């Protein structure tokens, strides 16, 4: 087997030269553990070529993103494809509601480019400062904007993928999860067109609560009242303290400015009926500005103590059972709530 692996690496190296890095340093918990090498293609065509080469030697090819998601046990003897050199972004000349990106592009960079045009992504991950387009497309899930727009796959116009063996296909968003990743067909995303929205006048909002039952009641109240928010998220008391946002648990979000009168009034009613209070605009902008914490390019990926989906009725119980953890939540229009329990940092 070692001889076959060496033959495969030699063939890849002949084509990719110094863009093949043999056997990355072993680091416990990293997706690179046990890999034969990492390869850095510059185009979708090179990914096709690479897939065909490894297929001849029966070597698995696995795409590696920014490693912001929990890692599953990896197989030994695989080749990793890294997209550090495929970070292109393309936007339509007209006001069409989509944006294109290569798999190595960062979600936040893409959204920032759109904001210069008064647009934004309909949905992006809470790890947007570090997460790559290809990495989160392979994971699917809910993120910022899911309260109005649902899961990521519902917001993918199309994706360009390379199948094992090198076949290149274009698939729609709803098909993506069935072909990408180890649980699908093992395809690798090499490009995508993503839905966008008008976003030049978003208004942040935030509510503070003394306990988790009040917080959970407010989430249910927002649903029952049909508040037309774009995003709805929550922050546990411990995470609010670490972020420097006070000692209360928080419910926060954003909505288009045209909805301000109705949405603002309804949020005040929800806060009043559940024992909470609406934070002033300056504080709401501050909470919104911290929505990615602790994900940042300059910080290591935080350690997840737990990642789970719960229905609305179980929010309070979950938060109480993890009172010592820093928990952030994202609420989807389906009523699912993604809760991430982080090991709190005492180093700021």
Description:
- There is one protein chain.
- By secondary structure, the protein is of the alpha+beta class.
- The protein folds into 3 domains: 2-82, Uridine Diphospho-n-acetylenolpyruvylglucosamine Reductase, domain 2; 89-198, 2-Layer Sandwich (Uridine Diphospho-n-acetylenolpyruvylglucosamine Reductase, domain 3); 202-342, Vanillyl-alcohol Oxidase, Chain A, domain 3, CATH 3.40.462.40.
- It is built from 11 helices and 17 strands.
- It has a 7-stranded antiparallel β-sheet with strand order 14-11-13-12-16-17-15. Strands 5, 6, 7, 8, 9 and 10 form a 6-stranded antiparallel β-sheet that branches.
- A hairpin with a 5-residue loop joins strand 8 and strand 9.
- Helix 7 (212-225) packs antiparallel against helix 9 (260-274) and helix 7 packs antiparallel against helix 11.
- The radius of gyration is 22 Å and the shape is elongated.
What percentage of the residues does DSSP assign to strands (E)? 25-35%
Query: Which fold name fills CATH's third level, the topology of the largest domain?
Result: Vanillyl-alcohol Oxidase, Chain A, domain 3
Based on the structure, what is the oligomeric state of the protein chains? single chain
State the low-pLDDT regions, or none: none
Order of helices and strands: HEEHEEEEHEHHEEHEEHEHEHEHEHEE
Distance between the termini: 48 Å
C-alpha-based Rg, rounded: 22 Å
Main sheet makeup: 7 strands, antiparallel
Q: What would CATH call the class of the largest domain?
A: Alpha Beta
CATH architecture of the largest domain: 3-Layer(aba) Sandwich
Count the DSSP helices. Answer: 11
From the spread of the alpha carbons, the general shape counts as elongated
Task: Give the domain tally.
Answer: 3
Main structural class: alpha+beta
């Amino acid at each position: 087997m070692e001889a076959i692996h060496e033959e495969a690496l030699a063939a890849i190296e002949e084509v990719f030269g110094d863009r093949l890095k043999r056997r990355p340093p072993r680091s416990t918990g990293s997706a690179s553990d046990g890999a034969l090498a990492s390869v850095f293609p510059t185009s979708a065509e090179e990914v096709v070529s690479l897939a065909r080469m490894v297929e001849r030697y029966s070597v698995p090819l696995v795409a590696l993103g920014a490693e912001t998601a929990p890692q599953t046990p990896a197989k030994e003897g695989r080749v990793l494809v890294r997209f550090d050199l495929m970070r292109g972004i393309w936007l339509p000349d007209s006001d069409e509601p989509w944006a294109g990106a290569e798999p190595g592009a960062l979600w936040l960079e893409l959204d920032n480019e759109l904001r210069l045009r008064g647009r934004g992504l309909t949905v992006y991950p809470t790890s947007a400062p570090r997460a790559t387009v290809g990495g989160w497309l392979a994971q699917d899930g809910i993120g910022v904007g899911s309260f109005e727009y649902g899961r990521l796959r519902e917001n993918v116009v199309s994706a360009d993928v390379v199948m094992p063996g090198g076949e290149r296909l274009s698939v729609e968003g709803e098909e993506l999860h069935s072909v990408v990743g180890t649980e699908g067909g093992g395809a690798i995303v090499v490009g995508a067109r993503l839905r966008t929205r008008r976003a030049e006048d978003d208004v942040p909002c935030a509510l503070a609560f003394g306990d988790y039952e009040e917080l959970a009641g407010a989430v249910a109240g927002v649903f029952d009242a049909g508040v037309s928010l774009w995003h709805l998220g929550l922050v546990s008391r411990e995470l609010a303290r670490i972020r420097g946002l006070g000692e209360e648990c928080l419910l926060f979000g954003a909505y288009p400015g045209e909805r301000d009168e109705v949405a603002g009034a309804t949020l005040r009613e929800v806060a009043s009926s559940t024992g909470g209070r609406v934070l002033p605009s300056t504080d709401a902008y501050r909470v919104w500005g911290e929505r990615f914490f602790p994900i940042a390019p300059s910080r290591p990926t935080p350690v997840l103590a737990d990642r789970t989906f719960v229905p609305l009725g179980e929010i309070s119980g979950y938060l109480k059972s993890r009172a010592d953890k820093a928990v952030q939540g994202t609420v989807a229009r389906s009523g699912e709530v993604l809760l991430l329990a982080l090991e709190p940092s005492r180093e700021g």
